[in-house]
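Is IPE placement plausible here? Inputs below.
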Amino acid sequence: MKHIAFIMDGNGRWADKHGKTRQFGHEQGSSNVYDIFLSCIELDINTATFFAMSSENMDRPKEETEFISILLNNSIKKHLPDLLDNQVKFSVIGDISHLPENIKKTIEHAETVTSKFTNYKLNIAYNYGGQWDVINSVSVLLNKKLTISYENLSKHLSTGNDFPDLIVRTGGYKRLSNFMLWQAAYSELIFLDVLWPEFSKKDISNVIDNYKSIKRKFGKVD
Ligand code: IPE
Ligand code: IPE
Ligand code: MG
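Reply from A.M.:
I modeled the complex. Tokens:
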């Protein structure tokens, strides 16, 4: 497997279960991201995408969305030295235009200084929607007067042609919630009851074993 993606759901319910605030749940969830990314690398997966915030999540109370944007800022700053050591290309996918200048700067700096790396890729989907991604790509094609073809549309998505082989959703619900609608056409989907802050290294290796047992057919016959 080349590319794994995570829909990190369940921070709020995890916090509830432990009698803590939703913010505390997001803090725990956020601190799990880099550990899981390192586990992916250990398991020989070179690209991981983490869904941190959907377009629709932006309608949550301002304190919550602001808190999540600060967590994003802090965790990029914290892990940038390690991203550079491990030669990881870092990207945020989604519409970050509304973010405060300091956070945009943190993101753009991390993207720029890691842009030449090809070994590994870490994408964070923030204010990301699959519908936004497709509309965005089509707009680029129209502006550049390019043909609306499968190849061109795929190439101009926020992920480019790099589609996830596997999408794992924690938190018990079996839905995509507007994540990678185009890219997920042939992704394998694994839904787990475990809540994101408690998703562990053991869970990821179980998920990979499960993935390896699936026969992918892409519409063809054996
Ligand atoms: C996922 O956790 C993180 C985001 C969507 C930002 P939730 O905040 O959705 O957690 P639950 O679903 O309420 O448990
Ligand atoms: C999906 O979780 C988005 C992320 C994990 C970032 P939600 O909690 O927003 O999904 P719904 O509302 O239950 O579909
Ligand atoms: Mg949720």
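Short version: The mean pLDDT is 97.
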